[in-house]
Specification:
20 strands, 505 residues, 17 helices, eight-stranded mixed sheet, alpha+beta, globular
Amino acid sequence: MTETTETREYDGIELRKVREFVWEIPQEGGMNAPARVLASDTLLEQIGDDKTLQQLRNATHLPGITTYAACMPDGHQGYGFPVGGVGATDAEDGCISPGAVGYDINCGVRMIRTTLTYEDLQGYEEELVESLFANVPSGLGGGGIVDGDADTVEAVLERGMEWALEEGYATEDDLAHCEDEGRRPDARPEFVSQKAKDRGRNQLGSLGSGNHFLEVQRVTDVFDEAVADSFGLEEDQIVVLIHCGSRGLGHQVCTDYLRRIEKEHGDLLESLPDKELAAAPAGSELADEYYGAMCAAINFAWVNRQLITHRTRRVFERVFRADAEELGMELLYDVAHNIAKKEVHEVGVDEGGTAVPTEDAAAHEERELYVHRKGATRAFPAGREEVPAAYREVGQPVIIPGSMGAGSYVLVGGDESLAQTFGSTAHGAGRVMSRTAAKQEYWGETVQDELRDQDHIYVKAQSGATVAEEAPGVYKDVDEVVRVSDALGIGDKVARTFPVCNIKG
């Protein structure tokens, strides 16, 4: 008796179940590879409710796409390439796509440990949220913490967190616990336009708006005590989460190169089903210049988060009347989730040498790839040389923020991540409601009051509209997102946190 393959269909796109939590859009037509969605039944229904699947299928038309394009459990519709999307293209004969990175280059998140407990914090919540809001710039436009003159911007773009260390805004430990030690050596500031530099110069050390935030949290659950111990985490501990990116500078870099692609590589653009996937051929002058500019914007974003970290430490010192070292305010890790990086991965190939899914492979070989992660987090397991020395024996920390009413997770890179997702997992809860719809559904002040009165969460924002747009109800269930990641072995649960104070733009 032949076993029937389970299928689902959304807006004319058929998915076939490969195994539990893995669904495939088969390769057909102009697709250069199949596509896969990693989701439970509940999450798949939400993913299928917008244009995510169409965008994922479109992404498989990118030249040199390898093995398959993947959608993480938190996936949702984005600009061209879905948020929660991972696509690896051949670095020699493929392409690099600004559209598959997005406008907020190196939007990312970092977690800062403290030695404070939740009991230590109680009674200081309102003072802390008011002081953080007053001292960490936020909102659309928003000023920065430092005066970003021309020389400063150039140095930040070139040296990243090395500049912050030299200027007294970072410690050696901060660099040791940041992805790439906070500096992309491939950065080429000369390929960042003057307009981009001008947009960023007054925004160094600012949250911005949208879903960016600074959140004080308490650790409520530890799932893996050994890994949690290596991360310096324990129950009832207070930690700080900072989520933001490269601000106007990164946005302008993306805009600049999308426009250049239209002019210089219109033939490639015309071959794609969606112009928002705009890409430059690997090895072209434009591809190399975009990569250099993107890496410079990555450095800018790391410094941006580091300056906010510096200011946060000063606030904690004043509120709790102890210095940051005494409070144990050390960086656990900083991860990027809007990025394309050259990485070497083992790829399954058929007898003709064409990359195929692992289960269909006749052999395996190492290839250099542009791994695009848009709303996806690198999740390398133990042993990978890119993982900082402090964590190399256990695996890379992965930080997955939830909504401001649901809490967040710390994971560790799973043993299956390299084989299944090019070493990637989800980056957050993922939206299920547009910002416009959210403002129609929720009232900001009501959300703030409910969070304070029901959950003892203190929220401060530039406007009630921002709070409404980020209400807990507009996001997927982060518990379900993490459950799928853990079950697939791409990112394993370590600890869970819950908000205490939150500031937003």
